[in-house]
Amino acid sequence: MGKPLLNINIPKVGRIKTRDVLYVAVISTGLIAAWNWSNKIPYVGPYAVKAKTLIVKALGFQYPLDSALV
Predict the structure, then answer these.
(1) pLDDT band of 25, cuts 50, 70, 90
(2) Considering Cα of 17, then 21, then 24, then 30, what sign does the dihedral take?
(3) Domain ranges of the chain
(4) Is the distance from CB of 23 to CB of 30 less than 8 angstroms?
(5) Per residue, what are the HEC states of 20-44?
């Protein structure tokens, strides 16, 4: 296998490689998509909206966040 495009050594963190950056990007994209469109997922939508309500209240934001729960 060739050298990674990104290979940074940060003290107390370790090596950060291209693969690690891609993993974080894919996981965070999935989480954002699940947050934004969870009410459209069959069978899970109502429970996801309740969970999002609790998370928004726990973070101390004004509820309802129309853009977050549409």
Answers:
(1) very high
(2) negative
(3) 7-58
(4) no
(5) HHHHHHHHHHHHHHHHHHHHHCCCC
Helix (H, G, I), strand (E, B) or coil at 7: strand
DSSP H or E segment with residue 8: strand 7-10
Cis preceding-peptide flag for 11 (omega within 30 of 0)? no
**Spatial distance between the Cα atoms of 6 and 13, rounded to a whole number of angstroms:** 15
Give dist(CA 48, CA 46) in Å, integer. 5
The Cα–Cα gap between 59 and 22 comes to: 28
Question: Taking the model in full, what pTM does it have?
Answer: 0.57
Amino acid type, 25: A
Structure tokens given for 22: 């891609």
Q: What is the pLDDT of residue 67?
A: 55
